[in-house]
Amino acid sequence: MSLKLLSANHGAALAATLAARANRTGRGFCSGVYPITPSTECMEYLCLQEIEKGRVVKVESEHSAMGVCIGAAAAGARTFTATSSNGLAYMAENCIAAAFMRLPVVLAVANRTLGPPWNIWADHGDSLLLRDQGLIQFYCADNQELFDTVLCAFRLAEDASVMMPAMVCMDGFILSHTVAQTDIPEQAQVDSFLPLTAVPHRLGDMPHTLGQIEVPHQTEVHRHQHHAAILGATRVYAGIQDEFEQIFGRRLTDAVVAYRAEDAETLIVSMGTIGATAERVVDLLRAQGQKVGSLRVRMFRPLPVEEIRECFAGKQRIAVIDRDISLGFGGVLWGEVRSLADPGAVVQSYMAGLGGGDVRPEHIVRMLADLLPRKLARRPTMMEAV
Fold it and tell me: Does the pTM exceed 0.70?
């Protein structure tokens, strides 16, 4: 192990490099890359790395970047790419193709607001475009977690019972460009953690097709299989956590991260870097005698329903903070978790930090001041969010 000062972008690229080298005695590594702010530095750093058996392919678009990964994964190689915002939107068709062909591509997303009007700052609306399309989704809160999760994503995506793309998300600039000490393992440790990539349906000596036309019943069967596999990913992830700890000496972060939540009467729920701010608010309000806790949803797909329901039990006031908006509805995370609370609990949606605006402790304190007197939740307008 060694400590390095790295941005989250560079950490994601270095984790991908170590994973690539771990497959050097297998079918190698391939990455299709195309730059877009704020994920460009991830791809630039990856291009500088020496990979014994692999290639980073510089292409003409994000759509083609994922196309390269599809071809490489279909041939049995380990694959990785990165993008943001409208780049992810342009890549979306091939992300869906990779998911439905059950190809284990790992995708790092530096979350950025979709345009126009153009905005280069953080918003989860880009990655949430793909929430229903069969990709595993993680949202990270710090550099070490981001690095560890990229390594884990290869292991999880390539598990024979999972076999689908995995998306690792970091808030653009807030995390992607923040430099922090990151514990980097030795190559031998990564080799031990990551078995050689084995895509059971890879193209090779036995002729077969991928992505062929189907009749309705076949599609139903494949969606059922895909749904069952992504639901099973939570169980697989728990096993990976144990192995990660044995090899690297630290615990891989849980799918949901509870902070001083056990005896809390009020809970703050969030994703990404807002979770770190929420924990500061919890400490501040606890010092004032308020029983407040935090719950950070780290794995959004598959949604860890039972873990969230257990954390919600007994909580009568729950503030869900979304760095996104489902237009005409409200916050996406709020919409997903509100039914998991106890009957009669007030689960209020707050949309904050859209377009990369700061979400500071005082903003969350104001949300809680708004929540505490409520007897019923109501859908907020944007003016009410912060």
Answer: yes
